[in-house]
Amino acid sequence: MLHLYTQLGLLFLSCWITSFSQITEQLSLNDAITFAQKNNPQFLSSLSQIDVEHGRFWRGVSPPSPSAAVNYQYIPKGSRVKQFGERTVEISQSLEFPTNILFRGMQLSSKVSIAEAEHSSTSIAITSRVKIAYYDVLAKQKKIELAEENLSIADDFARKAEIRYNVGEATNLERLTANVQRTQARNGLEVAQNDLKISLGELYYTLGRRKEDQSNAIILTDSLVYKPITETLGQLTERAFAINPQLKAASGRVSVASFDRTLAWSSFLPNLNASYYRQTVDGNSDFYGVSFGISLPLWFLFDQRGQIQEASANLSIAESDLQSLNNFISVNVKNAFLDMKNNERQIILHQTDILPQAAEVYRTALASYEAGDITYIEFLQARQTLISSRNEYVEELARYSISLAKLEFAVGASINQ
Known about the structure:
With 417 residues, this protein is an alpha+beta fold.
């Protein structure tokens, strides 16, 4: 029995440890975007707003509820209600003028379109943020690899410098310098690791991951690559004006304001009212009656005038906002495109010139140092040039990818590559 309890205890301990062990997940860029669009609170909120506007549409076009009333009259004093002389059962219904219902329905339908456009804009914004965070993590991971390689080289040379110093082939300055470089390389690795933690936190937040899932390790399966785009600035600008959801939302607001002004002018039209009566007089219930009425907008100098003035001003504001947004998108697409092109030039420069030359300088310096033709300080300068060039290239790849994501947000759609 004791042996059985021991086995159960070990099994429980094993399960407990396993439950708290870190889970490793593989995450592609497309998976990250899909996950964010299912879990990001802003995305879900904008999606729910569409349902809100649909609900407001049906409420807005629904007529008011009819009213019913029973009226007892001519009851002798001191008598009960059932001794009435006349009883009237009334059902009445009030209605807005039909064109008002039509215009309000069109206005509320425009609000639904605005919510849909804003949801699309939110989706594009979240996609852009996911890409930026994803690329940033990729860059930080690559920089950790370079920092680890740099530390390995620095550690190797520090050991060699110590040996050379002990046999009298190196100076104390060379030994001390190698040790300093090793310490700096170790510190650089720690800084890179901390930067990665910060970038991962931003990625987790953008994805909408729950707090309990943020401890899980992730492996990003995509990589930083350079792929030139095929569209020109003119094509991208034209596409932005055609499909950008922010512009669609702004145009929808102009439509809403226009319908609002139309409804303000329609306030001069009367509301309608109809009633049906079923009457009982002196025990005879064969009487009925109907009535029709309209409202009289007598105070048009106050209420209607105020509605029209307010609606006209709101329309002017919406039109100005639309024009301002047109100007902003034009400039934003241009600036994002120029930034992307500048990063593209830097990548090409590193690929064709800087990286090959830095690698050749390092190879030559290494051979010369091992042959004793140059000092460690001279070799160190060549190695630092190579390390700096490789780090710069990683940063340029990240900047290019991030600027492309920003350009897609400015356009409002993905870009062909």
